[in-house]
């Protein structure tokens, strides 16, 4: 919350499922899917009346609440629709808006920079206005449209410290200091601070496959991060729903059979062979990054995460930081998932 300074949103009752359900008009989903996980909501009253969104899903709900410390669910639905209509990613948009609010709080952005806006926490009207400005690159929106990395580089004044990104991509809505394996997943993710690509460690949320994890512990998690990254690689090439296959072990019994039926490739019946396939996919991603200069020093997290204790007002993550990233990377690389040698790449190929 407030650009990853706090781990708890006060007065969150406004975002309750009950309030969201009052706006729900129908369920939807992908073609022929029985799950129908899409939820269409329409705001029926107030300044955002008429706003309609197939969501907001968790990430969008976080992006337009926590970073700016606001709990108006109607504004969140409106922000989600606006990003969809204007072609903006909700996570990056919420992240850069949260960054702008902190710049204003610290006096780095002034009223002259944000003419007509008041970037004070809780001001959802300013949040909505910034979304439009970012899309149109109007005024301060021209700077914010560059994302937090380039913003911090242009603004300077030590803002790199609280530019919350990994490899230039704004971080998703999972607190690394309270979910350590997830933080390590962010750091080593080939695309940056996304919760996808296996970064989100569901084992820290209680899923015991291959084993559950203590979310605040740092040691002994490299193999789980690798496991999650490999599973994500298979999901991508298999073109299967992450929601459907992320929560249990059924895919280990059925996923290979699905691939054989779809492709006719008998080798896919062997789960060990599929594991090798997933490693090859990940190695190719890493090889591309390494060629472009993204070596170990880019497998890192924002300074705030590693030096500034998390504030949760008495929650279990109170005072936590990530202090063992380099130790984790040593273990991660020893398991042959880091910077590959040419011979290792050829061997896995």
TrEMBL record:
> GO MF terms on file?
electron transfer activity; iron-sulfur cluster binding; oxidoreductase activity, acting on the aldehyde or oxo group of donors, iron-sulfur protein as acceptor
Pfam families (UniProt xref) = AFOR_C
Report the superkingdom from the record: Bacteria
InterPro entries recorded: Ald_Fedxn_OxRdtase_dom2, Ald_Fedxn_OxRdtase_dom3, OxRdtase_Ald_Fedxn_C, Tungsten_al_ferr_oxy-like_C, W-dependent_AOR
The segment(s) forming the Aldehyde ferredoxin oxidoreductase C-terminal domain are 2-335
Q: Which PANTHER family match?
A: ALDEHYDE FERREDOXIN OXIDOREDUCTASE, TUNGSTEN-CONTAINING ALDEHYDE FERREDOXIN OXIDOREDUCTASE
Q: What is this protein called in UniProt?
A: Aldehyde ferredoxin oxidoreductase C-terminal domain-containing protein
Give the classification, highest ranks.
Bacteria, Bacteria division WOR-3
């Amino acid at each position: 919350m407030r650009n990853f300074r706090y781990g708890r949103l006060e007065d969150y009752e406004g975002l309750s499922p009950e309030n969201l359900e009052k706006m729900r008009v129908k369920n939807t989903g992908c073609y022929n899917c029985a799950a129908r996980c899409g939820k269409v909501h329409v705001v029926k009253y107030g300044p955002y009346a008429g706003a309609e969104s197939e969501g907001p899903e968790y990430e969008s709900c976080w992006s337009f609440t926590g970073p700016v410390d606001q709990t108006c669910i109607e504004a969140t639905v409106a922000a989600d629709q606006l990003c969809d209509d204007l072609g903006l990613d909700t996570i990056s948009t919420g992240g850069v808006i949260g960054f702008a609010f902190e710049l204003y709080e610290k006096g780095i952005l002034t009223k002259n920079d944000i003419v007509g806006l008041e970037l004070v926490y809780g001001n959802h009207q300013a949040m909505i206005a910034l979304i439009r400005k970012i899309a149109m690159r109007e005024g301060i929106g021209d700077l914010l449209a560059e994302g937090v990395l380039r913003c911090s580089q242009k603004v300077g004044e030590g803002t790199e410290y609280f530019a919350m990104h990994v490899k230039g991509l704004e971080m998703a809505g999972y607190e690394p200091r309270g979910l350590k394996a997830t933080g390590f997943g962010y750091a080593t993710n080939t695309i940056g601070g996304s919760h996808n690509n296996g970064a989100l460690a569901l084992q820290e949320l209680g899923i015991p496959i291959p084993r559950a994890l203590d979310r605040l512990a740092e040691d002994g998690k490299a193999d789980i991060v690798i496991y999650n990254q490999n599973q994500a690689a298979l999901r991508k090439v298999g073109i299967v729903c992450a929601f459907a296959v992320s929560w249990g072990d059924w895919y280990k019994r059925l996923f290979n059979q699905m691939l054989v039926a779809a492709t006719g490739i008998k080798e896919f019946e062997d789960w060990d062979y599929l594991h090798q396939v997933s490693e090859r996919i990940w190695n190719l991603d890493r090889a591309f990054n390494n060629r472009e200069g993204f070596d170990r020093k880019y497998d890192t997290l924002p300074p705030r995460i590693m030096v500034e204790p998390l504030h949760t007002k008495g929650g279990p993550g109170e005072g936590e930081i990530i202090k063992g990233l380099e130790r984790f990377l040593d273990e991660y690389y020893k398991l042959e998932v880091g910077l590959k040698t040419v011979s290792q790449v050829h061997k896995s190929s």
